[in-house]
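Whiteboard transcription, Tuesday session. T.W. wrote the structure tokens on the left side:
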């Protein structure tokens, strides 16, 4: 494990990005993320992948500055398709005032796209996933269920309108909630992506040395997810996530298998999960509302329980 006096956040806590101090006023936030297509539209894929990569900087309270494309693409596919992917990424980065200044492409049997991003934050103001405190309230800024919906889309059985709503949600930058939490001052944050809500929450709790309680009914869910779960639709990653957290989640016995699976659904470009002191909750909700963040759900609270342990109530 790397240890250096200017490495303010490294790999020890499993945070979303690393933070390296340049001087007393400036630190770099660095991250990389990429994945295979989650939509058939190349432009949408590029836009969602870029939003997902940028989210790691926002989760740390940083401001994206420059980025590099990371591309795997089959040489046999039409170059125009790759152009649409890159255009989606460039447009989303431009929305974030982040410059894509180059990148690297390799011939790959399965398309992949994402960004390596460098952002800025003031040293000492970075937000880690390791700062949650007993008495904090947990706020989630996007609904969950994107993994289930995109799997339903691939199977051709996603309910009408659900895919469009999911894509719009995934392509929405986490810039506004990040700015809100930096304005108010919070204790911890992580973005909800591949390990699902339960996976990323338990990671935050372990890093912080605390436990938490979550209300399943308080967690916002994308439209169409319940119908797909009833048909047994969920990606393999979601099932693996549930198996991976069984030792650290106490499920209320009234919760169904679908309830549990949903809370473990592998997300793409999900929202921020913010741990905020209860006294600052009204200010955070007001700051989110003033920035037109549609989802600002209070989903649970942090306590002094076993580190990494979550109790899930109805």
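and on the right, the sequence the group agreed on:
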């Amino acid at each position: 494990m790397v240890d250096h006096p200017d490495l303010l956040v490294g790999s020890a806590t499993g945070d979303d990005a690393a933070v390296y101090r340049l001087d007393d006023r400036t630190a770099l936030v660095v991250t990389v993320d990429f994945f295979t297509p989650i939509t058939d539209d190349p432009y949408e894929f590029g836009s969602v992948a870029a939003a997902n990569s940028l989210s790691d900087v926002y989760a740390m309270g940083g401001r994206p500055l420059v980025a590099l494309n990371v591309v795997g693409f089959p040489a046999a596919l039409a170059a125009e398709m790759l152009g649409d992917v890159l255009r989606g990424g460039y447009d989303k980065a431009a929305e974030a005032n982040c410059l894509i200044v180059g990148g690297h492409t390799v011939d790959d049997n399965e398309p992949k796209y994402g960004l390596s991003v460098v952002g800025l934050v003031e040293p000492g103001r970075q937000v880690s996933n390791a700062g949650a405190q007993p008495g904090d309230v947990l706020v989630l800024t996007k609904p969950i269920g994107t993994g289930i919906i995109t799997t339903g889309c691939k199977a051709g059985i996603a309910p009408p309108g659900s895919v469009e709503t999911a894509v719009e949600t995934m392509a929405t930058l986490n810039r506004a909630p990040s700015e809100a939490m930096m304005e108010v001052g919070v204790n911890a944050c992580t973005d909800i992506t591949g390990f699902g809500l339960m996976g990323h929450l338990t990671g935050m709790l372990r890093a912080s040395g605390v436990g938490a309680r979550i209300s399943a009914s308080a967690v916002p869910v994308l439209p169409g997810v319940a119908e797909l779960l009833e048909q047994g639709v969920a990606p393999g990653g979601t099932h693996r996530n549930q198996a991976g957290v069984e030792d650290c989640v106490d499920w209320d016995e009234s919760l169904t298998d679908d309830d549990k699976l949903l809370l473990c659904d592998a997300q793409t470009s999900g929202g921020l999960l913010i741990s905020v002191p209860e006294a600052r909750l009204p200010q955070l909700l007001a700051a989110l509302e003033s920035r037109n963040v549609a989802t600002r759900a209070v989903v649970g609270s942090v306590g002094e329980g076993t580190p990494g342990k979550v109790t899930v109530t109805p």
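Someone added at the bottom: The chain has ten helices and 13 strands.
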